[in-house]
Amino acid sequence: MTFRKIIPPSQKSSLTRPRPFKAYSFVPFSPLAMLDPTILTIGGIVLGIAIIERILERWGVIDLVDQFAKVMRFILPVTFYSALIYFFATFMF
Protein backbone atom coordinates (compact mmCIF):
# COMPACT_ATOMS: atom_id res chain seq x y z
CA MET A 1 0.00 0.00 0.00
CA THR A 2 1.45 3.31 -1.06
CA PHE A 3 0.88 6.79 0.25
CA ARG A 4 -0.77 7.93 -3.02
CA LYS A 5 -3.48 5.26 -2.70
CA ILE A 6 -4.42 6.38 0.81
CA ILE A 7 -4.42 10.12 0.17
CA PRO A 8 -5.40 11.21 -3.34
CA PRO A 9 -3.35 14.00 -4.92
CA SER A 10 -4.72 17.49 -4.37
CA GLN A 11 -6.38 19.36 -7.18
CA LYS A 12 -4.02 21.71 -8.94
CA SER A 13 -5.22 25.26 -8.60
CA SER A 14 -5.87 27.10 -11.81
CA LEU A 15 -3.38 29.71 -12.78
CA THR A 16 -6.07 32.20 -13.73
CA ARG A 17 -6.75 34.74 -11.05
CA PRO A 18 -10.18 36.22 -10.45
CA ARG A 19 -10.67 39.66 -11.90
CA PRO A 20 -10.89 42.49 -9.36
CA PHE A 21 -14.30 44.12 -9.01
CA LYS A 22 -15.52 47.25 -7.34
CA ALA A 23 -17.36 46.70 -4.09
CA TYR A 24 -19.66 49.38 -2.74
CA SER A 25 -20.61 49.63 0.89
CA PHE A 26 -24.12 50.37 2.09
CA VAL A 27 -24.85 51.85 5.51
CA PRO A 28 -28.27 50.67 6.64
CA PHE A 29 -30.72 53.05 8.22
CA SER A 30 -30.67 52.93 12.00
CA PRO A 31 -33.84 53.90 13.88
CA LEU A 32 -31.68 54.77 16.91
CA ALA A 33 -30.48 57.81 15.00
CA MET A 34 -33.90 59.36 15.66
CA LEU A 35 -32.85 59.79 19.30
CA ASP A 36 -30.89 62.87 18.29
CA PRO A 37 -31.69 65.76 20.70
CA THR A 38 -32.67 68.08 17.86
CA ILE A 39 -35.19 65.60 16.43
CA LEU A 40 -36.57 64.87 19.90
CA THR A 41 -36.92 68.59 20.67
CA ILE A 42 -38.80 69.29 17.44
CA GLY A 43 -41.06 66.30 18.04
CA GLY A 44 -41.69 67.36 21.63
CA ILE A 45 -42.65 70.88 20.62
CA VAL A 46 -45.09 69.65 17.98
CA LEU A 47 -46.58 67.11 20.40
CA GLY A 48 -46.87 69.79 23.09
CA ILE A 49 -48.73 72.14 20.76
CA ALA A 50 -51.13 69.34 19.78
CA ILE A 51 -51.81 68.57 23.47
CA ILE A 52 -52.39 72.27 24.24
CA GLU A 53 -54.81 72.44 21.32
CA ARG A 54 -56.81 69.48 22.67
CA ILE A 55 -56.91 70.97 26.17
CA LEU A 56 -58.16 74.30 24.84
CA GLU A 57 -60.81 72.46 22.84
CA ARG A 58 -62.06 70.71 25.98
CA TRP A 59 -62.18 74.02 27.84
CA GLY A 60 -64.37 75.42 25.08
CA VAL A 61 -62.02 78.14 23.82
CA ILE A 62 -62.88 77.47 20.19
CA ASP A 63 -61.56 80.78 18.82
CA LEU A 64 -58.09 80.08 20.17
CA VAL A 65 -58.26 76.49 18.90
CA ASP A 66 -59.08 77.79 15.42
CA GLN A 67 -56.06 80.09 15.55
CA PHE A 68 -53.86 77.16 16.62
CA ALA A 69 -55.28 75.05 13.77
CA LYS A 70 -54.49 77.74 11.20
CA VAL A 71 -50.93 78.07 12.46
CA MET A 72 -50.43 74.30 12.72
CA ARG A 73 -51.62 73.77 9.15
CA PHE A 74 -48.54 75.67 8.04
CA ILE A 75 -46.06 74.73 10.77
CA LEU A 76 -46.52 70.95 10.78
CA PRO A 77 -45.53 70.26 7.15
CA VAL A 78 -42.65 72.75 7.32
CA THR A 79 -41.40 71.21 10.57
CA PHE A 80 -41.74 67.67 9.27
CA TYR A 81 -39.83 68.28 6.05
CA SER A 82 -37.20 70.38 7.81
CA ALA A 83 -36.60 67.63 10.38
CA LEU A 84 -36.45 65.03 7.61
CA ILE A 85 -33.87 67.03 5.66
CA TYR A 86 -31.87 67.63 8.85
CA PHE A 87 -31.98 63.93 9.69
CA PHE A 88 -30.75 62.79 6.29
CA ALA A 89 -28.14 65.54 6.04
CA THR A 90 -26.73 64.75 9.48
CA PHE A 91 -26.84 60.98 9.66
CA MET A 92 -26.53 59.76 6.13
CA PHE A 93 -23.45 61.70 5.02
User: Overall 3D geometry?
Assistant: rod-shaped
Radius of gyration: 31 Å
**Helix content bin:** 55-70%
| Classification by helices and strands | mainly alpha
SSE arrangement, N to C: HHH
Described by strand count, sense and barrel closure, the largest sheet is:
none
In percent, how much strand structure appears in the residues? under 5%
Give the termini separation: 66 Å
Number of strands: 0
Mean pLDDT over all positions: 78
Tally of helical runs: 3
**Low-confidence region ranges:** none
Describe the structure using short key phrases.
0% strand, single chain, mainly alpha, 93 residues, 3 helices
Draw up the topology in text.
Elements: H1 3-6, H2 37-59, H3 62-91
Helix pairs in contact: 2-3
Structure description:
- With 93 residues, this protein is mainly alpha-helical.
- It contains three helices and no strands.
- The chain has helices at 3-6, 37-59, 62-91.
- Helix 2 (37-59) packs antiparallel against helix 3 (62-91).
- The chain is rod-shaped, with a radius of gyration of 31 Å.
- The N and C termini lie far apart (66 Å).
- The mean pLDDT is 78.
Concise overview:
The chain has 93 residues and is an all-alpha fold.
